[in-house]
């Protein structure tokens, strides 16, 4: 049994006749017929009823259900073998959320280039929701993001926990006291937009109160601290977000400040290219890509 025989079998099923399958594969009809006969001989049973139209036997229907998996496996083994014999090339597309893009992506790309210099990378920076859509559409191979709702089509592997924190200018009144939620409402709040990693968690935090804080939203998280400083407000950011020198964390902690960040993959993709496997290994080894350059601000929590 070889890959050509399996491809011929699938082509006959898709096209409905041996003649149309031969036309699609650019073979003579006799070649396709010979390939199917060899496959039947190796398997020990007939795949098709003999006749003008290619009608599957009962055994053929059962085998057809496994054919795509066998073809994918065969191609995967072939690609790995080719990669061992020559340097792998091509384009690998993957996605990250903004905190990853700001903290750790450059080092990840540099290490990937060192190991796979023949592969170009196309990196998409988007929200978790946008990356999940792109992954489902086959536009990217994987994503580093939050955990999206409805994981039936995806597999999510937690890498680390990101933390929601609040910050203000060092001269701001809120920077000198431990705040309650009621006190937090005194000042304008600047946070990421609706597609931000922590937006839903903030909504849950404020849901117990009849009114919401007066809020500004900025879709680019890295711009939130400066906007809050100029507005005389408080920034809701992630712990990995760099703060300007004249800002510090506010002593207020949400009830549940932690958010899972991890590796999102398509659950239906059984086989990965060698380049994708290298990238995944690098992501796992980094483990805390977004937080790896986080300054030690433990002394500023109070």
Cα shape: elongated
Helix content: 40-55%
Count of helical regions: 11
Which consecutive residue ranges, at least 5 long each, have pLDDT under 50? 289-302
> Rounded to an integer, what's the Rg over CA atoms?
27 Å
CATH homologous superfamily label of the largest domain: Periplasmic binding protein-like II
Name given to the CATH architecture of the largest domain: 3-Layer(aba) Sandwich
Largest sheet: 9 strands, mixed
Order of helices and strands: HHHEEHEHHEHEEHEHEHEEEH
Overall mean pLDDT stands at: 82
Question: What is the percentage of strand-forming residues?
Answer: 15-25%
What is the terminal-to-terminal distance? 69 Å
How would the blueprint of this fold be written?
Elements: H1 3-15, H2 18-25, H3 29-43, E1 48-49, E2 55-56, H4 58-85, E3 90-96, H5 98-102, H6 105-115, E4 119-125, H7 128-136, E5 143-146, E6 154-169, H8 181-184, E7 189-191, H9 199-206, E8 215-217, H10 224-231, E9 234-238, E10 247-249, E11 258-266, H11 274-286
Parallel strand pairs: 3-4, 3-5, 7-8, 7-9
Antiparallel strand pairs: 1-2, 5-11, 6-9, 6-10, 6-11
Helix pairs in contact: 1-2, 1-3, 1-4, 2-3, 6-11
């Amino acid at each position: 049994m070889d890959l050509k025989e399996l491809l011929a079998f699938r082509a006959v099923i898709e096209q409905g006749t041996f003649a149309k399958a031969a036309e699609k594969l650019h073979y003579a009809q006799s070649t396709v017929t010979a390939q199917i006969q060899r496959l039947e001989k190796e398997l020990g049973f007939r795949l098709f009823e003999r006749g003008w139209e290619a009608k599957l036997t009962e055994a053929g229907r059962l085998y057809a259900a496994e054919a795509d998996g066998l073809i994918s496996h065969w191609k995967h083994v072939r690609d790995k073998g080719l990669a061992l014999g020559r340097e792998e090339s091509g384009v690998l597309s993957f996605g990250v959320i903004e905190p990853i893009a700001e903290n750790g992506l450059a080092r990840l790309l540099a290490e990937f280039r060192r190991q796979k210099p023949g592969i170009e990378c196309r990196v998409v920076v988007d929200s978790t929701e946008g990356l999940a859509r792109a992954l489902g559409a086959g536009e990217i191979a994987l994503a580093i993001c939050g955990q999206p709702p409805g994981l039936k089509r995806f597999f999510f592997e937690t890498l680390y926990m990101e933390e929601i924190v609040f910050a203000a200018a060092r001269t701001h009144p809120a920077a000198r006291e431990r705040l309650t939620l009621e006190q937090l409402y005194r000042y304008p709040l600047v946070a990421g937009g609706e597609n931000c990693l922590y937006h839903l968690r903030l909504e849950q935090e404020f849901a117990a109160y009849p009114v919401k804080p007066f809020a500004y939203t900025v879709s680019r998280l890295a711009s939130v601290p400066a906007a809050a400083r100029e507005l005389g407000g408080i920034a809701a950011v992630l712990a990995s977000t760099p703060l300007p020198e004249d800002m510090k964390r506010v002593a207020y902690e949400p009830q549940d400040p932690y958010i899972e960040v991890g590796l999102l993959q398509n659950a239906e993709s059984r086989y990965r290219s060698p380049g994708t496997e290298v990238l995944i290994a690098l992501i796992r080894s980094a483990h805390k890509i977004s937080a790896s350059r986080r300054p030690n601000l433990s002394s500023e929590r109070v």
